[in-house]
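User: hey, got a sec? need DUF3945 domain-containing protein folded
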Amino acid sequence: MREESLSYPKLKEQFSDVLLVSDSKKKEVRIVKGIGKDKELQTVVPDKKNESQFLRVDKQGDLFSNFFSNFYRQLKDPTHFIFFRVPENQAIHIAERMQKEVDKPTKMGGKQFEQHQIKLDYKPENKNNMETKQSMPVVGEYRYKLEQIDWKAMSNLGLGKERLEKMNLLEPLLKGYKTNELVPVSLDLGTSITRMDARLSLQEKENGQVVLAIHGIRKEPQLNYKFFGHEFTKEDKENLLKSGNMGRVVDLINPKSGETIPSIISIDRLTKEVIALRTEQIKIPEEIKGIKLNEQQKRTLTEGKSLYIEDMMSKKGDPFNASVQFNADKRYVEFLFDRPDTNKQSQSQQKEAPQVFRGKELDELQHQKLKDGQTVYVSGLVDKKGKEYQGYITFDKETAKTGFSFDNPNQLKEKATPKEESKTQVAVNSEGKTNEATKKIKEPLKSEQNNPESAKQQEQQDKPKAAAKSKGRKM
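Assistant: Yep! Here you go:
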């Protein structure tokens, strides 16, 4: 069974969070850059000009846990640091808010950052053990070692070490993934040479020998034959051909041991190979694009079904809705933007009120009110330009949709009612609209601003428009 077959996620999708750190000695909140040669933590000021230096971390739960455990234990003195994991597009804004809380602590201020804190039990090791461990490289994220590969056999396929490194394929292979792209392979059969495109992976045989697996391109997936004891139904075939995922758990039979293995099934979209994955190896993240998953949603994904999620936040800070589903080939939850829904009935049953709205986590009272059909006032929402705004949200149980309004839909006169200026701020910063009184100001509007607030901004606003250049032809 090809349950060991994996693909290597694209870096821009795999790495989407960054690490913030609060230093209890220096009373600073900064963004992590890495670890120096002397095991000292390297950080940068949280601003736009340092974005290229931010340490990006894996968004998948298990991979991140392994990375952070190794990272934490490499630090020279980690005990006075508190680490936070935040979405990349919100990192600078959250860091600024944390710094304000460090400078002037409030009773409730710290609680809003608890959702981002990374909690890890740390036990200092004795010096002898530390000296021994520090001299050894951290290799926990690699499944195979270079010396396990038969390089002579690889060279016969036209795949030497230097070529794999140049194509950026060696690292994903050592981590146990399939290459994320097709690779030209030459097979020298003595009397003839065959050339083909295929995905590659390393696999370990029963005797411990590591061999190269070549996943050639098929004309179409083999769905008319039994797959480890499972016979594909008409619905199974339709789902696999439309979305690439079968959408349910089935029992597969290991032909050697006779073991029954509950599994999900997907199609490798590059090679058309049928891939199975044990359900025990499915790892569902705690949240997806700012939306915290409840137990029912996690169970839906674990069962191989698709799940429709609303009000997720893109990297640009834009809210969006999409279906997601766990892919057996990729081994992570993927978005189904360009593929038909394979589980509409399941989606229609997801009528739980959201716990996170536009990246803002609701407290227990707010969430309960939303579940009860009440209108909830929410502050601390952030627009595209990083400025805060506030408003009211409602939840429709029948359609499972969350609504937002600047004005209280129930027309209740509350002190927290958003002002007209907040509407101007969001309209200009996020919706691309123009406010006549501030249309020449270059900086994004702040909360409750609808006029120039400084001499510099007033000068920008009063500056006359340059006369248009003549477009007449020369005679």
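Quick note: The mean pLDDT is 76. Let me know if you need anything else on DUF3945 domain-containing protein.
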